[in-house]
Amino acid sequence: MVTPEDAEKMIRPLSMKRVLKTWLPLLASWLLMSMGIPLINAIIARLENPEINLAAFGGVVFPISLTIEAPIIMLLAASTALSRDWISYKRLRKITLVMGLSLSALHLIIAVTPLYDFIVNVILDVPPEVVEPGRLGLIAMTPWTFAIAYRRFQQGAMIRFNHSKMVGETTIIRFLTTSLVLAVGMMLKTIPGALLGGLSQGIGVTVESLYTGLRVRKILPEIKAAPLAEKPLTLKRYVSFYVPLILTSSVWLLWMPIISAAVSRMPDPLESLAVWSVLTGLLFAFRSPGVAYNEAVVALLEEPRSYPVLRKFTWLMSLITVVIASLVVLTPFSSFWFKTIANLPSNQAEAARGALGMGIPLTIFSLLIHFYQGIIVNLEKTRAVAEAVGVFMVALAVVLVIGVVMGSIKGIYIASAAFTFAHIAQAVWLWIRSRKPRKQLAAN
Fold first, then answer.
1. Complete DSSP assignment for 112-142
2. What total of structural domains would you count in the chain?
3. Does residue 284 belong to any structural domain of this protein?
4. What predicted TM-score, i.e. pTM, was given to this entire model?
């Protein structure tokens, strides 16, 4: 059933104000999520054995957890694109539950069996003192993948039916829960830092998932009343749509363990892993405007004369965000953050500040990546997205291999340079692969 408001939107061209209204709650959500890691690192840095536990959380726990989570990363985009009616929503929900439970079981198997020792000792080759703290943190994060799969699926439906503000609400719940767990750990001072980081993440996403399930009930009548999609969602169509995205996210998230493995083979590995753990939070924040933009593009591209407006918005936000990122790096704020908030020693804080400066281009290229990717996902031509991630990984690997072979530059600098260069390569590839659909959209 089409409401008068929906009918008006079908006629009225998309405005910059409406793009901003859709994007801002998603941006707030991603920024809050990106601030979770710096908060965890700031607490770990104030507990016993900070360097070891920072290296364990940032070099072992988080990379392995994200790698296992990879197949469900794109569920947000998939749900936004495909949750068009009640039948599609129910089919996607069933698939989500199966994927989430299977991957969380895999997470636990890795954490408590010799697989963990093989991964951290042979593949990652982390310093020996990091191994056992990392295992405890990884066990604590067992609920992570299932909880994130469920809430990403529900958040996609929220965005599809113009309730993106709900996404921000759920993230606030997660941030508050994570903060509460960290505050308790800080007061007790008896929980090892890497374990506390894993507990805060595992409990935080679980509470967020439960709250998301409660909030989505409000929009279920809208989903049930939505007209059936022209193309019904079948398992074959879903596999064709989502498998390239699974490959995309699975390959893309390998960058974290790959960087950990490379940095472990460069000068001062323990120090660089500890600093990298702190740095990734701010690099995620630099990427957040673009990551949040992906679902906004997918949801809004179907509206009349939307492409020119979205293109203009992309470039305007690129300019604004790069100015903000530059101010963060080039003013005393970055020194204050690393020395006071993150509690890094002066030499590590300076290294982190220099490496963060290499990440400034991420603000521009992340927006461009997700603008082009949103266009491709909206048209269900997801193979090009997988190709772009392949380009990302090749570019990342080239820089890291050069750093390992040279053996004279600290790993933290090589890691940041590789991460930024890989994003640039990915953006260029998506620009090339999206030229035809962009021309078609511009002509409409």
1. HSHHHHIIIIIIS---GGGHHHHHHHHHHTT
2. 1
3. yes
4. 0.73
